[in-house]
Specification:
The N and C termini lie far apart (91 Å). Helix content is 47%, strand content 6%. It is mostly helical. The chain has a domain of 51 residues. The radius of gyration is 37 Å and the shape is elongated.
Length: 130
């Protein structure tokens, strides 16, 4: 610490009128500054950055419309969450877009109902080995 004061006093020319207080403030700031200990290699730098990347979001299909959405979040295309309508998506759309969206929703519901309803099997179909 004494050596640092001596060096600072030598650097200050006699023409400049600096008080001891200013010198002590500059010494304190010099002492508290961080000094890098050594060069970090590229491998060390890159290894520390290994986990800094954008991860692919986990998406699941909506139970109502089948569109991909984040889990535990309301579906943005149909407004349903946990088989209940939370947001009325059709209110926010224009008249033209609303009709188009309604048609799409009706068609999807018809397809789902068609898949669930199966015609009864005949005795010949039951007897066949699968």
């Amino acid at each position: 610490m004494v050596l640092v004061k001596f060096i600072v006093l030598l650097l200050v020319s006699p023409s400049q009128d600096l008080s001891i207080h200013k010198l002590s403030v500059t010494l304190i700031t010099l002492k508290d500054m961080a000094i890098p200990r050594g060069k970090h290699t590229k491998a060390r730098r890159n290894n520390s950055r290994m986990h800094l990347f954008i991860k692919e979001p986990s998406l699941i299909p909506c139970s109502k419309c089948g569109a991909l959405k984040k889990p535990h979040i309301v579906c943005s295309s149909c407004g349903y969450y946990n088989k209940k309508e939370v947001i009325n998506v059709l209110e926010k759309l224009d008249k033209k877009d609303r009709k188009k969206k309604e048609k799409e929703m009706v068609e999807k519901e018809k397809k789902e109902v068609g898949k669930l309803e199966k015609k009864p099997m005949s005795w010949k179909e039951m007897s066949k080995k699968q």
